[in-house]
Amino acid sequence: METPELPGLAAGFGALLRRDLQLAWRQRGQAVNPLIFFVMVTALVPLAVGPEPALLTRLAPGMVWIMALLGTLLAADALFHEDFVDGALEHLVLSPQPLWLLVLAKVTAHWLVIGLPITLLSPLLGLMLALPDAGFMPLLVGLTLGTLVFSLLGAVGGALTVALGGRSVLLSLLVLPLYVPVLIFGTSAVTQAVAGGGIGGPLALLGAIAALALAVAPFAAAAALRAGIDG
Amino acid sequence: MARKWQWFHRLGSPPGFYRASGYWLPWLAVAAALLLGVGLVWGLVYAPPDARQGNSFRIIYIHVPVSFLALAGYYVMAAAGAVHLIWRMKLADMVMTAAAPLGAALTFLALWSGAVWGKPTWGTYWVWDARITSMLVLLFLYLGMVALRLGFSNREAAGRACAVLALVGTVNIPIIYKSVDWWYSLHQPATIRLTAAPSMHPDMFKPLLVMIVGFYVFYALVLILNTRAEILARERRTGWVRDLAAGRNQR
């Protein structure tokens, strides 16, 4: 009997990425929910603090970032859980492809479905919160990098809690402290740009964090998945 | 070669550690009581009062050692987690389990004692100071560890999951600390500052040193006690624990 030739790394990565994107497309409603949440909660801010543009301008960078953080966090819960429920996750863990690569494929799909749309929507929210013009560019660049880190760290949390009850609350408890640096650098890039300062520093640091997360988080999430799957 | 490592394997097994640590406990307890007793009396009674803060500065004799150990405790936990993840050593998982609530308690104490000191000194219990904020994030990291452990019903999986989380946290702690420092320097409030005493008077510093060493010994003592309790809880169905409970085996 001949052993079938195994597909290469790129083929494995591509197949899983395609599958996850296709699944997201078929459950469009579910993928859009975090975006609606993102917009709706941001609309609550002026209702809560008042509509004065000066106050909103002051709050805008932080609010948009916090809403983006919460939106991705909401979605991180589903990253592995659905595959766990229908048993597909165990096949991924058992497959001859390295698990970190498959995790990376799933994170990429997750970021394309959640992180990227949130980033693209953020200027709209900036507009609603009276963010000055200078803030939009750093907001877009920062959120592009930041949501990637959110997805990567969310994958670690989602892998750890994949089989547990009370998952989504526990997941936020685990990863929120880890999001702190991204939030600080992301908001300060926008704030500094609005104040007329340079934005290279915080954005470079965000890029460094994203590179580190990209290098480390898939391995951590893979290890977490092997443990977490046993609940 | 085999002989050389025998002591390590014996100590690394739960019953071996339980037996050996039984001999350490009295020494540690006496040393901790002695150091903490001397340090407390020296610091609270004989050290001179601070020129500006009066007697309220004396809370540093608790606050500083507790804060040291809150941070060191995370690394103890993470190191135990790494050992468990790499060598699948059961004892390391037990140490990690014991270290998490202990660290959370220390971090809380550090925040609490800081708040109590802050009220008479700064006029407020809470300030968004860089160090305070970092400690708060550290408390959240500890609470996450405890919560994750409680979430699992499979103990073996819980150990590995917590180890992964502890290691991810270890990579993150320096980044969190740096970022919070940076955040603080951007938003530095003008009214309240840490009274940055460039150097402490030796009469105040020496009892602090005694207290720090005392707290380290105390931490080791409590960690070992918690680990022993964890060992007994997990191995309660084994023969050696039953022998122990029936009094058939000393120590």
Question: Overview of this structure, please?
Answer:
The complex is a heterodimer of chains A (231) and B (251). With 231 residues, chain A is mainly α. The radius of gyration of chain A is 19 Å and the shape is elongated. In chain A, helix 3 (53-76) runs antiparallel to helix 8 and helix 6 (99-128) packs across helix 7. Chain A has helices at residues 9-26, 28-49, 53-76, 78-85, 88-94, 99-128, 136-160, 167-194, 200-228. Chain A has one domain (10-228). With 251 residues, chain B is mostly helical. Chain B has one domain. Chain B is 79% helix and 0% strand. The mean pLDDT of chain B is 85. Chain B is globular and about 60 Å long. Chain B has eight helices and no strands. Chain B has helices at residues 2-12, 14-46, 60-87, 90-122, 130-151, 155-186, 202-234, 239-245. Chains A and B meet through helix 7, helix 8 and helix 9 of A and helix 5 and helix 6 of B.
Task: Give structural attributes.
heterodimer, A: 231 residues, mainly alpha, 9 helices, 0% strand, elongated, B: 251 residues
Briefly say what this structure is.
The complex is a heterodimer of chains A (231) and B (251). Helix content of chain A is 83%, strand content 0%.
